[in-house]
Specification:
This protein has about 290 residues and is an alpha+beta fold. It has two domains: about 1-50; about 70-285, Gamma Fibrinogen, Chain A, domain 1 (Alpha-Beta Complex), CATH 3.90.215.10. The protein is built from five helices and 13 strands. A hairpin with an 8-residue loop joins strand 8 (about 185) and strand 9 (about 195-200). The protein is elongated, with a radius of gyration of 28 Å. It starts with a helix and ends with a strand. This is Fibrinogen C domain-containing protein 1.
Length: about 290
């Protein structure tokens, strides 16, 4: 009958729709599995990149947007509970300024604020800071000990967003001082990395850096100081933003206590705080809040 035919057609239609729905469900399961596999592959690839770094422009696409490597120490150390992880070596990536990720020592803030990126540290004589331009440009040392992060990375960090600078000093009497500048930035390689921004000073160590503002970086093989008679990097040892030759040089020779008062002019100096070579110093930066 006509009614039976309609019922049969309806049943057939429902069966066809059920079959299509089953097929779609199976396809969805397949797609979910594929996405899960791809996500796992991306995470594995990112973990590998974080471990080894990327030093080839051909692989730049691997880092973004899927890898999401942090751009600051705050991002790198932030935990799910809102606290910051312990001080240590972490990886950052600034895609607009450097073609590769790089490692940096992230230092916890003593007052519980956002962590700092160490750009320089002196604590022993183990690392020679009397070096050529290429070493200062790309960095050297041990990120867990004596280090200079590299002018290229310092430029990238300070150009990516406004930064502040914290300088910590300690002498052989175990006295400590500090200098904080509410802004800090250096120029690029073509400009020879001048100290082109230095904000308001606050601290206990005096301001030994303001005299060096706008100076290009000088090394023993690339002189940019304003001294007509000598190369300050050769005379004072170590690369710095020398003028004539200036009031500070945190990259001078590391002198043991016995020599800190006699050979001080070649040492690690911050003249507005201590006349002699220092025992421990670090320079650290972080985005300005």
């Amino acid at each position: 009958t006509f009614c039976n035919k309609l019922c049969d057609d309806a049943v057939n239609t429902i069966n066809e729709l059920n079959n299509k729905l089953t097929d779609l469900q199976n396809e969805l399961v397949t797609i979910k599995k594929q996405l899960a596999r791809e996500d796992k592959e991306r995470k594995t690839k990112c973990d590998h990149i974080k471990l080894i770094g990327i030093h080839n422009e051909d692989y730049k696409f691997l880092l973004t947007p899927t890898c999401k490597i942090p751009t600051t120490c705050a991002e790198a150390t932030l935990q799910p509970n809102g606290a910051y992880a312990a001080s240590g070596v972490y990886e950052l990536y600034l895609a607009d300024f450097l073609p590769h990720a790089f490692q940096v020592y992230c230092l916890q803030d003593p007052d519980g604020g956002e962590p700092w990126a160490l750009i320089q540290r002196r604590q022993s004589r183990e690392t020679d800071f009397d070096r050529d331009w290429i070493d200062y440009e790309h960095g050297f040392g041990d990120l867990n000990a004596n280090l200079f992060l590299g002018l290229d990375k310092i430029h990238a960090l300070t150009q990516s967003r406004p930064h502040e600078l914290w300088i910590h000093l300690e002498n052989f009497k175990n006295e400590t001082g500090y200098a904080i500048y509410d802004s800090f930035a250096i120029g690029n390689a073509d400009e020879e990395y001048p100290l082109n921004k230095l904000g308001k000073y606050n601290g206990t160590a005096g301001d030994s850096l303001k005299y060096h503002l706008d100076q290009k970086f000088t090394t023993r093989d690339n002189e940019n100081d304003n001294n007509d008679w000598i190369n300050c990097a050769e005379e004072c040892t170590g690369g710095w933003w020398f003028i004539e030759c200036g009031w500070s040089n945190l990259n001078g020779i590391y002198l043991e206590e016995a020599l800190a008062k006699t050979w001080y002019k070649y040492g690690v100096l911050w003249k507005t705080w201590d006349s002699y070579s220092l025992k421990h110093v670090h320079m650290a930066i972080r985005p300005r809040s």
